[in-house]
Design brief:
Layout (H helix, E strand, L loop, with lengths): L4 H4 L1 H4 L17 E3 L1 H7 L3 E6 L9 H14 L5 E4 L3 H13 L3 E6 L5 H9 L3 E5 L3 H13 L4 E2 L5 H18 L5 E5 L4 H13 L5 E7 L4 H4 L21 H10 L3 E5 L1 H15 L9 H11 L8 E6 L8 H4 L12 H8 L2
Helix pairs in contact: 4-5, 4-8, 5-6, 8-9, 9-11, 12-13
Length: about 350
């Protein structure tokens, strides 16, 4: 039996005598050799770190398991988070496992259905506010400061500590750090955590390639975006909490943070599914979209080892592909009609 994630990396994470009683089997996500996608893009060694296989379907579980274990150990009476979806699903699940109430502050109309359903199913107490994610996070910060509940957003350092484990897993599989690691950037905690993880593991340091959506690209613009908009709901954030950490990761690794369009994101999502059979949510495909462009521009070499992090499962945000369902029109159930439709 494979030990739970926090136990596998106990020497790097645990405090003296610390117990990790809560686990949902997080971590250990596959690093997929993307041969067909790599050939299409022009990379001989492209890998996909598919975080959609975590218990709630996203990378958030890595940090949440540590944050909730420590909140429980400290005697917390409840946890609270602001969320565009994935954090709420993860927080609700781990709070349920810990027997803690979970309060979620959501921006109205800005959360994908799959994520909202997860939080509701796990018994989270949801409150929608008439504002964006940044307004929701500000409210959560105040609740945390008042001691109402433990905040489990990425402003909680335990979240970022737990998310380092993905970098360690990549190194464990490859035997070294990749030449470049690409991932979406929303609240910017993940790029911050990955970089810390690589630096701490001391087995090589990749160039960190972060990608925001054009309509929600505050780090690229150099200023907060008041009303961020993008089909990639998980990164629809206008003022990232880990902005400084992301910039440090970019600069220290001699990498970049750039923006990709919604069309590029959706095309990359289709390519990942159609060429590798991996269904990721739109935000996850931002890294692939960015690598595709950089390779086309000659800014990534054909023989470089590149890892793209797919942060969440496609079923998290089914609305992004729902339009394709409209092309399905019923036909008669007889074999002749079916053969005609199949062009056989």
């Amino acid at each position: 039996m494979i030990p739970p994630l926090l136990e596998r990396y106990r020497s790097l994470l645990a405090r003296d005598g610390e117990a990790f009683a809560i686990t949902l089997g997080e971590g250990g996500t596959p690093l997929i050799a993307a041969r067909r996608l790599g050939a299409e893009i022009g990379l001989a060694q492209l890998h996909l770190k598919f975080e959609g296989t975590n218990p709630t379907g996203s990378f958030k579980d890595r940090g949440m398991v540590l944050a909730v274990n420590r909140a429980t150990g400290a005697g917390a009476q409840a946890i609270v988070c602001a969320s565009t979806g994935n954090t709420s699903a993860s927080a609700a699940a781990y709070a349920a496992a810990a027997g803690l109430p979970c309060h979620v502050i959501l921006p109205a109309g800005k959360v994908a259905r799959g994520k909202l359903a997860q939080a509701l199913a796990a018994g989270a107490r949801l409150t929608m506010v008439d504002g964006n994610f940044d307004a929701a996070l500000e409210a959560v910060r105040r609740l945390g400061a008042e001691g109402v509940a433990v905040v489990v957003n990425s402003i909680n350092p335990d979240r970022l500590d737990g998310q380092q484990t993905a970098a360690w897993e990549i190194v464990d599989v490859l035997g070294r750090a990749p030449d470049a690691l690409a991932l979406p950037v929303g609240n910017a905690g993940n790029i911050t955590a990955y970089w810390r993880g690589f630096v701490r593991y001391e087995r090589g340091r990749p160039r960190m390639l972060g990608f925001q959506a054009e309509g929600a690209a505050p780090i690229v613009r150099g200023a907060p975006v008041e009303s961020p908009e993008t089909v990639a709901t998980a990164i629809r954030i206008g003022n990232p909490a880990s902005w400084k950490g992301a910039v440090a990761a970019r600069d220290e690794s001699e990498g970049l943070i750039d923006a990709v369009s919604d069309d590029e994101i959706l095309e990359a999502q289709r390519m990942v599914a159609g060429l590798e059979g991996v269904f990721c949510e739109p935000a996850s495909a931002a890294g692939v979209a960015g690598v595709r462009r950089l390779r086309r521009e000659g800014r990534i070499g054909p023989d470089e080892v590149v890892v793209c992090v797919l942060t969440g499962h496609g079923l998290k945000d089914p609305d992004a592909v729902q339009a394709e369902e409209g092309a399905l029109t019923p036909i008669p159930a007889d074999l002749a009609s079916i053969r005609e439709a199949l062009e056989l």
